Amino acid sequence: MASGQGANRxxxxxxxRHRSREIGDRVLLLNTSASDMKPDEPLREIFQSSxxxxxxxxxIKRRRIGIFGRxxxxxxxxxxxxxxxxxxxxxxxxxxxxxxxxxxxxxxxGISTLGxxxxxxxxPYITHRLRHDPPKTVGRIKNLISLGILxxxxxxxxxxxxxxxxxxxxLHYNSHQNSAxxxxxxxxxxxxxxxxxxxVARGRYEEINRxxxxxxRMLIAPGGEGSRATxxxxxxxxxxxxxxxxHFTPCLSLNNxxxxxxxxxxxxxxSARPMAPMDxxxxxxxxxxxxxxxxIVDRGEIxxxxxxxxxxxxxxxxxxxxxxxxxxxxxxxxxxxxxxxDVMLLVGGFSLSRILERSLPHYYSFKESLEEGSQLExxxxxxxxxxxxxERVEKKRKALGEIKGRLT
Amino acid sequence: xxxxxxxxxAVLLSLAGGLFLLLEFGIAAVSYLAVGFIVLTLLVSLLYxxxxxxxxxxxxxxxxxxxxxxxxxxxxxxxxxxxxxDLIDTQPFLLEIERIEKELIKKGYFDRELNLxxxxxxxxxxxxxxxxxxxxxxxLRSLEGLAAGAYREKVDHFLERYRRDMExxxxxxxxxxxxxxxxxxxxxxxxxxxxxxxxxxxxxxxIFTRAMKKGLEECFHLxxxxxxxGEDLEESLRELERLKELSSHREKVARxxxxxxxVSRHVEKPFLEKKKEVEDFVGRALSIMDRDFIEEEAESxxxxxxxxxxxxxxxxxxxxxxxxxxxxxGGLKAMRGLSTRVENLxxxxxxxxxxxxxxxxxxxxxxxxxLFARKAGEALEELVEELEKSHIENKILSSYSKxxxxxxxxxxxxxxxxxxxxxxxxxxxxxxxxxxxxxxxxFKAGEKKLVRE
Lengths: 408, 453
What we know:
The structure holds two protein chains of two kinds. Helix content of chain A is 48%, strand content 16%. Chain A is an alpha/beta fold. In chain A, helix 4 crosses helix 6 and helix 9 (196-202) packs across helix 10. In chain B, 77% of the residues lie in helices and 2% in strands. Chain B has 15 helices and three strands. Chain B has helices at 2-25, 28-84, 91-106, 118-122, 126-171, 177-188, 194-228, 234-245, 249-264, 268-288, 299-309, 317-348, 357-363, 369-411, 427-437, and strands at residues 416-418, 441-444, 449-452. Chain B has a three-stranded antiparallel beta sheet with strand order 1-3-2. In chain B, strand 2 (441-444) and strand 3 (449-452) form a beta hairpin. The longest helix of chain B is centred in the N-terminal third of the chain and has 57 residues, at 28-84.
């Protein structure tokens, strides 16, 4: 479920070039402005490249694009407006969510960029409604994970203000934990990992979006075919939720040549490429997902046992606490088509300081421009929630040394 | 033509009459109507006449067509029966055909040479001719069915004997596997009509003749090899000449097999020498190419290796010679494939591309197999070495962006990093590249360490 223009672009790119068997065409694009939903502009090249893609686009447009709001003309970077439109026209959103035909164990992944108005305003509200106050026709959706994309470091004050408010609202809404899990990605951070040639050849935005799609693909890989040890979706969020710390970021190292890298160096390479600014030494949770060519797995060069062993060793050496964090899962997936090894570390519970230190000065400067009134009061509440969450994260991390043994 | 002339005159007269009436009496409308009616009537008459003439011609042609087809069927069946005459008694069938021909001549449809008599046909109606044609067609079909029934069993038996002979040749080491497979396909083919049966027999005979010819050539070749070794095989040569003249294929095959067994004893030494030469070359080439990154290029030689294992004795000398040829081709194919990969990798690594194709093609003209084997082995060694080097360089190039942050992390706050700490394959090459790209860092080759200056 991609809300807002930035997330819509990711969904279009997924739909046109990277569709997976697991997700299929169950993609929902939400926006308040019909003009934002014209992929012909940003993705002209993609959709004009073949009649098949044009046909596909028409299909998405009919069944999977929902324009909501009473006066749908875009939220103009104002998340209050994006949230208001979602609240007032929730019935439209409900109809499109129903059409996704979600089954009991399905996961609903909400995506939004956190710098804007529509997605950033609506996604936390929609998440809250679907998880805690669902309409009868849809039913409660517990497995709702959010993927929030933090703005570029060079962007203006309002976007950083929006981002921190969006982050806070995804984590906490109306005195509840909101998303079951919040996956964070920062545009500048992802771009810094891209090779110069790749950026130029394919365009920086498309390449960043492609990396985000890769992270989603790896996130759901343990539930798909060829999985040696399944990480259920509940494994992703149940324990973090009960600990009250449930933010994560993916660290990706794809296309590793198995002739060059061993499992330990692949994990090391992935850990050097977190998709959000963070210090891995502060992380308290990690999921290790490795997708390897079938023949390598069959030859026993990479096994579930060796992954457990290497990931355990790596966690002890690199994560917070003597035992290598609080929580660790690993899953090996074999793929007959693959020639290289893909590795993702989904690292969680890390200190948010690096994210906050980049956005807070902008946040405060923009907050000063807000006039006294209900909006400012609301912002104070949002800020309080984020502070509280941040403190909880720090407390957990510091207390880690006192917890005896791992919980898993 | 007369009808046309009369009709045209009638039209002209009518028009003249109409014109006269018009000028004389001046009742224009009535006159034009009358003239129009006359013209129309005449036109219809014209059309009728044309159609009538045309259909008469069509009927005549149709009659001729039926009888021509009948004659063709008679001649074709006669020809097939004559061909089948070597296995069954076709005399009664041919007599019946003769009777049918005579009857048609008597009725005046054909002359004695079985040419159509067109004048006679004009007096017969189309129905009469059609009935005649149908009657003869049925008679021919019955005849053909009877003959095919008698012939089928004989053809099957005939081909079975040929097949047994070919099996004997094959088991005796003659390289006729391809012909044998082709023969069995023909033998299994369902044939219903006399035409299909004669065709099946003819094809079987042709294949057998080809296989036999090949067998004779192989035997001659074996004799030539033995003679090169100084053996006196004049009598064998004379026997071979006598075999060529024999008409009984059974005897021909039995004597050819005996002759080959006899000659093979004289070529044991050259056979063993040649087999060793081929085995040595294939074994060496495959061991040179025994690398993880080489698969497809070695396939042809692996196939030769498998076939070589099935070559047991000097009776298969010709098979061995074919394998020697295949080993040469396999070696050249491997060299071409490896050379292309080396060139492609050199391009990817921005290196100068060395053209080796000329040297490889020159090897084709080296006639002496031992010399070819030596030179090809050297070329393969060089190519594999080059490929391995480029292969590793390419891996380092494509994986460097992932290894660099690992070395960054290891060097953070430290003065040096050892090779053991960089836990990737080809660590030394990655470290050298790292040092080239980071001015403050040097690679100490002796200690195999990266050192911060």
